[in-house]
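notes to self, project folder thing:

trying the whole complex as one job this time. last attempt i did each chain seperately and stitching them together was a nightmare. two parts in total, labels are on each line so i dont mix them up again. if this works i'll redo the older ones the same way
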Amino acid sequence: MAPTAASRARRTPPSLGIALGMVAGAALLLAVTRELFLLQVLTFVFIFAIYAQSWNLVAHSGQFSLGHATFLGLGGYASILLARNLGLPPAVSLFVGPLLPALVGLGIGRLCVRLREWYLGMVTFGFTAITQLLVVEQFGWLTNRWDGLEAPRLLPAGLSVEGAAVGNYLIGLGLMVATYLAVASLMRSRTGLAFATIHDNELVAGVSGVDVRRYRILAMGAGGYLAGLAGALNGHTLTRHISPGVFGIEDSIWPLLYSIAGGLRTPEGPILGTLVVRLFWELMLRRLGGFESLITIVLMLAVIVRFFPQGLYPLVLRGVAAVGARPAVRR
Amino acid sequence: MASLLRGRGITKSFGGLLALDRVDLEVGAGEVVGLIGQNGAGKTTLINAITGVHRPDAGSITFDGQELTRLAPDRIARLGIARTFQIPQPFPTLTILENAMVALVFGPRASGLAEAEARARTILESVGLGGKADLPPDHLNIVELRKLELARALASGARLLLLDEINAGLTAAEIQEAIALIEGLRRQGLAILMVEHVMRVILRVCERIIVLHFGRKIAEGTPREIAGDPAVITAYLGARRAAGGGDRAGR
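result (full assembly):
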């Protein structure tokens, strides 16, 4: 058996090559088609791959979040409010706003530092409901309650519809690739090693000298930032609007589905998973209607987990290895 | 000999069960001390108390003069105390190499990743696991897992090793190897506190033996003194003899 996916993520260096491959593939597609629907779907994939990346990073530290929508929503609200009320350019607020969910992540991480697995899942889940209530009630004067807020656009006004779609596509792509490179190098670093030991066995990690508290809190903070970035990006580009609906259950479940489908605890998995699940959903299932298609997605996940418990990414790796090995075999 | 680890009145109870009852202990720098007692005597609890896994209800434990009882396990590890577990506990999703690297990177040495990798490879070679460095630990059998536990504790650069039954289930030849290894460590100046059921090992390598019985220290002395101590014979060796265990008590 090959080394586990998680450990491979820390040792193989070619993330730069994979990043270039993603950029090349996305650019090639842009050269071939300007089909608006496809560009929008892929922009959505880029943004939610960042979101899934965040969930996966937190999972890499052994923490199971069922409340990631908290971070997604707070990032969106913070960035949009900074842009609307303080006049910050969205290009700036996009990166400043997620500091709020990062802080909230540090707080939740600190508060839940002794909880694991489903207990942690339930508490993080609860935070989403609390956050929604706070946003609607306590901060209703700021957030316009259930009606939500229009989001200033990230791109300059006056672009054609196609120009805006291409612009959003490229911004999403750039940030997804940057996030990928950041997470890949984090996973290979000392910090990534600490996360993995905590994931495997907190007790042994502790007596080996790993500051379990600190690294768990750090993972939640970093996860909060990245999820917030996805939320802000989504608000300023695709939805151009944010409402308390963002704190819904589905938005906490999606990153989990994407990550598991793609390959947990690898930096490539969340991207692959978001792409496959989302394309499947958008191109085939959406026409079925919401409810049945959600069932289909969950069934699809069950099949993946049953037959490819490490997700689709190891499958792709094996495929690439097989193709690479074939010429040598023929000779 | 200057004492490196000093425990005074260590007490710990779980619910109504008094697992440790005012235990005093001392381990000098470079000394090998054995900890024996029947199952449930409190040996592992004592190791857990020293390493911060369980906080004692009362008493004090100092290492090199520093109080440990209020410190988190990772702080204690970084001060220079490493341990093995009775049941080997590798990190299952890390490679064997990475398992050995963890204590180097996060322990008292605080090595960088590249340096830790080189050192960990050397240490794995020295315990005979070099060829499996890049595999996950589920490729190891129980003896190899114990070697990995030991490699991990050695890699940390600790000054005190707490070994919890590293010889359980080993063959005579493997025990011989373990004895040689422990003697080598002592020559390097490491202090060792070892829980051990294999009396042959205890009598051979320990300068001093502490006997626990239902959480209480009932005897302490050289192997010769312990073997002749009436309280020990009644509580431990004698019980085994009466049960027909012969003179190889505890095996």
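what i see at first glance: Residues 1-80+159-251 of chain B form a domain with the Rossmann fold fold (CATH 3.40.50.300).
need to look closer tmrw
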